[in-house]
Amino acid sequence: MIDKSVREERPVMSEPQKIQPSSLADVAASKFEKQDNVSAAYGSGLDARNIYAWFGKYLAVSDMSIYFAAGTVTALIGPSGCGKSTFIRTLNRMHEFIPGAAMSGEVFLHGKDIYTSGIDVTKIRLKIGMVFQKPNPFPSMSIGENVLAGIKLAQLKVPNKNELMQDCLERAGLWSEVKDRLNQPGGSLSGGQQQRLCIARSLAVNPDVLLMDEPCSALDPGSTLKIEETIGELAKTMAVIIVTHNMQQAARVSDYTAFLLSEGGPGKLIEFAPTREIFGRPKDIRTENYVTGRFG
Amino acid sequence: MSLNEILDQVRDLPPPRILSNKPRFSDRIFRGIVTLGGFTSLLILGLISLFLLYRGFSALRTEGFGFITKYEWVSSINSDGTEGEAASTYGVGAMLVGTIITAIIALLIGAPVAILAAIYLAFYAPIRTRKFLVSVVDLMAAFPSILFGLWGLNVLMDQGIYVAELLNKYLGWIPIFQVPVPVFLRSPFIAGLVLAIMIIPIVTAVSREIFAQTPLDRIQAAYALGATKWAMIKTVAIPYGYSGVVGGAMLGLGRAMGETVAVFTVLNIVYRANFDILLGAGGNLASHIILKFGEASSEEIKALMAAGFVLFLLTLAVNLLADFIVARTGKRGK
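Structure tokens for the assembled complex are given below, as produced in the milestone run.
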């Protein structure tokens, strides 16, 4: 568990620069096809600036800045150990659960840094949901209770729980499969269904951003396809950030792709561009080598 | 599926090969030694219970079922060997009541403290504090019970009496808090307090162990949904650890039932079924046995052996109950 003081004492490798609209975000916004959508929802994206992340003395992520626009899917790709998961976990303050973990940089949501001291971290995590690699429904709860778990955990008030439950399950593409068995335990579902249940669960608290850490790596191709369809639906209303080892998946689901690489040191952002460009005409030779399968 | 059906199915297939895995001589020796070790506890426990049953059988046969229901323990032979006036009659009912009452008091007071301690150690304590406190808890588990007894008698008693008087004054309308005469010294309540302290280590250790095993992905799932630490513990850790905590509490209950010296030291041993827990009189099976043993006639010794057998069965029953509860609730949260 990281203490705030630890974070402040840590030598900051580079002072966060004066805030200018992230150039990457500008690129993203200008080249993005659904531009109206983006500009309308511009304020509810997630803006990560100069992120560094440590485990103890080990620097895992170095100087990463990405703007994730609302209404888009951004894929984070790169070989194992390049800091994708570490980076994504700094975006909803899950990184600090690891003993000895520290970070530097800023993450803006609605124009406010989520690392500002005194902020209620639990409220941040309501706005920035997360889906994990391994499906992790709560086994002591039924399917229906799992969907509403966030409401219960954060003690939120909702007018109509059943309506919300149905809505979330529909958006996660699971409603038709479970509508007659909502009282059965969450663990009774298949792996792919469990993962969609976890997605439904994170939707119930109405997040603006959804982080997905290799959500399909434990699933069969059929379930993967369903989840990819779900991701496409979700991106209409929020920013989706997905870590994936599967480049086809990145190409299929994402609007933007960030390529990360560690090259023996900390993980760095090599290239961030619309997905078509990353896979079509990457600017950096390292990106090209990776996406064409020459290494990694 | 019958054997024939299975055979029909495999008829066309080649017969399975016999896979031999003949262990080496040295391996067999070692296997023999560890097997012996594995069965030692069963063997010893079996021998002890047989011994108790054998030595106490005549008393059990004479008294029948009354041995565990009767509230009388009268020996016709005095300690100096002369024949007493009354006829012998042995029944451990009163001590059985005392055993259960003191153990339940201990559980009701000790288990909540232990569970809170376990939650603190598993989720809140900084690493160094945790390591230190865990070894303190282990030390406490190995602490000689006579020292708990002496401390309970000399130090805890005064505080306990004050609490007992308060309970009697304000909750006296509840039957168990009534006292026919205001004697609060050395009561089952005080003995239960001491027992509570004695069972805290085992319940804490077992509960902490199970809480510490709470799957990380579930903890993270809760946090990622905006849970506070307490909400996470309530929703994830407690359902997960529930069966283990119940098991730990039952182990504590078993220990409290079998405790001898601490109860013998603290409680004013009087052979009666004392349901007024604040009144200074009572006993439990183990303390009764130790009290009577030194001056018992051969006939009474047999009855004490039988009492020991009853105590054995009682603790066995508690442990079986614990297994049952753990097995029944174990699926929840797993």
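DSSP finds twelve helices and two strands in chain B. Chain B has a mean pLDDT of 88. Further analysis is deferred to the final report.
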